Amino acid sequence: MTEKPIPLTAKSNLEDTQSTIIGFLQLCFIISHETSGWSIVPAMINSDSIENYFCQQSGKFNGLNTHPTALQYQRNASMYYSDNPHYLRKVTLGD
């Protein structure tokens, strides 16, 4: 009987990590190409600020829906940023 290797982490954790890295790289791209004079301090971008963002979106726009789709998040983000134009700067720069 052969033993199956034990994964280091759950598949969902790997997907979350991959999503976070992709999001961070996109944030770097946006800031470097669309704004001048701003920089990213990776230590300021932590899971607390990301979790806070998603919790606010879920609570404000989705009601009891705790698992919104990517399309719902996209629409919600547009509404959220129109209500809070300085939020992205605060999260990325720690102002």
Topology:
Blueprint: H1 11-34, H2 47-62, H3 70-83, H4 87-93
Helix pairs in contact: 2-3
Give an account of the 3D structure.
With 95 residues, the chain is mainly α. It has one domain (14-93). The protein has 4 helices and no strands. The chain has helices at residues 11-34, 47-62, 70-83, 87-93. It is extended, with a radius of gyration of 17 Å. The model is unreliable at 90-95 (pLDDT under 50).
Primary descriptors:
mainly alpha, 95 residues, extended, single chain
Uncertain residue segments: 90-95
H/I helix tally: 4
Proportion of beta-strand residues? under 5%
Question: What class, by secondary structure content?
Answer: mainly alpha
Helix content: 55-70%
Apparent shape: extended
Gyration radius over CA: 17 Å
Concise description?
With 95 residues, this protein is mainly alpha-helical.
